[in-house]
Specification:
This protein has about 180 residues and is mostly helical. It is built from 8 helices and no strands. This is Retrotransposon Copia-like N-terminal domain-containing protein.
Length: about 180
């Protein structure tokens, strides 16, 4: 008997790290050819003789693996919120709605925190991590064109946040 095929996600979802966790899930599943389970519903056997049942069964088995990967990559306290959801697509949509908020209050809070963030006693790596931790939720709220998405030049918002990051570094880094 062969070993069961297990999908392992390297990051545990704890709520605030949704953006990084979602990227990890999508990347791992894309590499395994299973990313479509996050966006597609199960196929339906429309054959009159039931010949498509094997395809449906294989898809459902793979969907179960994706669901298992999602559940096992979450903190235990979050798992039960998924108990009534029956496909990976429905789980994915639920988590996205829960953790990617388009909220004026959240936007205000993030902008305040970015405004007051300065390097201070932090190393440049720690400062960058703190800045990136705030930027992740903010970036997920704003649909925009980025250089990574094929825009030829940086947008105003990309330049703004680059300058905002630089404004927070200690004076010894200003010349760089």
């Amino acid at each position: 008997m062969s070993q069961p095929f297990v999908v392992t996600i390297p990051l545990k979802l704890d709520g605030p790290n949704y953006r990084g966790w979602a990227f990890s899930v999508q990347t791992v599943l894309r590499g395994l050819g299973l990313a479509d389970h996050l966006t597609d519903y199960p196929p339906v056997d429309e054959s009159k003789d039931g010949s498509g049942a094997t395809t449906v069964k294989a898809w459902l088995t793979d969907d179960g693996r994706v669901m298992s990967a999602i559940v096992t990559s979450m903190n235990q306290s979050l798992i039960m919120s998924l108990s009534s959801l029956e496909t990976a697509k429905v789980m994915w949509s639920y988590l996205q709605k829960r953790y990617v908020q388009d909220s004026g209050a959240l936007l205000h809070t993030l902008m305040q925190q970015i405004h007051i963030l300065e390097q201070g006693d932090m190393s440049i790596d720690d400062y960058y991590s703190a800045f990136d931790h705030l930027m992740g939720p903010l970036m997920s709220m704003v649909p925009w064109c980025t250089a990574a998405a094929g825009c030829p030049t940086p947008t105003f918002i990309e330049n703004f946040f680059t300058y905002r990051f630089v404004m927070g570094v200690r004076p010894e880094f200003e010349s760089i």
